[in-house]
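User: My advisor, Dr. K., asked me to get a structural model of this assembly before our group meeting. I'm new to this, so sorry if the format is off. These are the inputs:
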Amino acid sequence: MTKRIETICVQGGYTPGNGEPRQIPIVQSTTFKYATSEDMGKLFDLEASGYFYTRLQNPTNDYVAAKIAQLEGGTAAMLTSSGQAANFYAVFNIATCGDHVVASSSIYGGTFNLFSVTMKKMGVDFTFVSPDASDEELDAAFRPNTKAMFGETIANPALTVLDIERFAAAAHRHGVPLIVDNTFATPVNCRPIEWGADIVTHSTTKYMDGHGAAVGGAIVDSGNFDWMAHADKFPGLCTPDDSYHGITYAEKFGKEGAFITKCTAQLMRDFGSIQSPQHAFYLNLGLESLHVRMARHCENGQAVAEFLAKHPKVESVNYCGLPGDPYYAVAKKYLPNGSCGVVSFTMKGGREAAGQFLRHLKLAAIETHVADARTCCLNPASSTHRQMTDEQLEAAGVPAGLVRISCGLESKEDLIEDIAQALEQA
Ligand SMILES: *Cc1c(COP(=O)(O)O)cnc(C)c1O
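Assistant: The format is fine. Below is the predicted structure of the whole assembly, which you can bring to the meeting.
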């Protein structure tokens, strides 16, 4: 029986047997016991599945990863210590020194920095394309050594909406997978795999956790990308791994399991960005109410966006739920039930006015965070995006005077009253 998304949020990933804990148990153990060296040796050779060391795998994390895989409609998933680790692993698992990746320019500032500075130092080259680029412009960005395409369903903080089907088609024309960061939409509002995405990533720190309690990330594989059909491009998946006695991931684990197995066996083994079982437990508490919370975040976001759009001190509002928004039509297709609770707007009077507005807010706090139960605000140009030049800010759709509001789960009337009085005083 295929379960609906609400049921997967509550019960997916873990099915206790008779007399076992109803809630996912926290397996707070770094290591696991075996009777013979031979038993354990099989695990090290990836000949048998099982637990031996929590850096590689832990039952608590696996239950929660299995829930996220079901939510996204994928075949395998893994948890990471943060969204940054998830995006780094997802890309580096297939693109290494000498390779190239095409990425949307409208992405999270931390991801932009990871790609354009840190991974560049590691020898991976990126070409950034507008999320609105034509098919011809997308095609022109690919090179013979391109290994992946990357974008965000709803970009943080520009709030552009990715035309996933069109980006997936471009990636597939060039024989590479599309990786989509689905943090803001969550699988409750969009399931990128259904539109052709091959790999989905998350900063679970945001709506999935939803309470500002635990930093974390996740990677989900659709199981759809045929690595062997493009074996020359993906030697890491399609040729023997000497560090595992010559197994070939795409042969041994198939399309469904190769990507996540390699990512765990190589990248998690060597870089070690694990999520602690305790954090995975907190994450699961968030997932249990994700479908209920997302509806309210969207309701509050929509009400705040509509209020701001009518206010005389506001120059422009970005929210794909507003009929005048450039992404309204795309959002209707990919996000029919709502997008998220994050709204951004530019005040008349630019950076100065934005600063005054933020100072006068009483309910909404200034925070480097989004997507939790409590409403928070930020001026990206003076915080998360301060590494970027004015030209890069413009290209990323984040002008210097932009304010981002992440609408929490409070009363929308209270939120609007707070915003109204702060605008009045600015
Ligand atoms: C926050 C965020 C990240 C980074 O995640 P962390 O958990 O903070 O490491 C990546 N992508 C998006 C879209 C984000 O909002």
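One thing worth pointing out at the meeting: Residues 82-84, 87, 108, 110-111, 152, 156, 181, 183-184, 203, 205-206, 215, 217 surround pyridoxal-5'-phosphate (CB under 6 Å).

User: Perfect, thanks a lot.
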